[in-house]
Amino acid sequence: MAHKDEILRTKMNNLSSRCGFGKCSKCHQDNTGRNWCHLCNTEQFQNEFDKWTSGDREIDKFIQQIQLNTNKYQDIIEWIPFGRLEDVTYLAKGGFGTIKNQLKVRGKNSIAIYGITKNPTENEYMMVISYAKHGSLRNLLNDNSYITDFGLCKPVSENDPEKIYGVIPYMAPETLSRGEYTKASDIYSFGMVMLEVLTSYPPYYNVSHNTNLIMDICKGRKPEIKYEIPLFFKEIMEKCWNFESLNRPTAKELKHRLIRYDFASRQNKIRKQVRAANKSNKNFIKYDPNEMHPEAIYTSRLIPKPTIHEYDTFNSRQQFFSIPDNINVEDEENETQEMECKFKSLEID
């Protein structure tokens, strides 16, 4: 019996080793990632802390916290002296940053962050990432539809609460009108990304991204759906677009529904929806970037504020008056006249 128990234990250990990441060759503890021991690497990083600095205490602390808490090598970032980068050349400019070429590459489609450096000539900090062969981070949606953020960023030095930053087509009405960045506004953005992934068309690609579009979105405008989408996805997407933020699904609810789709996709009902959509889209023309409106902007920026005239026009259309049936007015003459004036201002007979 003991012999059988030993054989079973050995088999279980071998299975655990195959399913996990094996043992660290140095401390003989379980690795937390492929070829990565959290215990040993944390100790090594700590021993190196006094040998480098970015020149900024907060950046140093940020890098150190990541190094101490990561459980796999893919998540590590480091301070990279600018001299270690070769042939740094200008490539393009994004929402609030300039992109320059550098030599390191990790993986085909991932945009890996290797670390932070500082250009001593321009006295600017820089993120060191892998080269995006697609020419644009947005174009990675063609192959890798993983979402890390919605581009609703602003300059790190900007703290004015009155200024709103982001990409207009992906911003919820409450964000555009009141600067509210919430979990519910992220769900709205997720719905817009769903539209682009499912149809290839970015939202509002054929109109100017100006104050007129902002006002229209704040009045409930939704993007045109140019592609037949399976009903299951369309319902989820349109729930994310709900004008009332409290009526949008939560991230947990979205996860539950999408996981349910993964299982339900094997069932006839979902299959029929997909087949019907594919049949309808047989001659569908995919999005052509050349069709984009010249004033359609898909990088994060300071959102233009509507003029006073535009605000007045918008507000005048948004007034909803409810007059109770039983208005009690005192008999004094001046109060009666005051009530008549209020009714006249509302154009009520």
Automatic annotation (TrEMBL):
Domain Protein kinase: start-end pairs: 1-259
Any one Gene Ontology molecular-function term assigned to this protein's record: ATP binding
Listed name of the protein: Protein kinase domain-containing protein
Organism: Diversispora epigaea
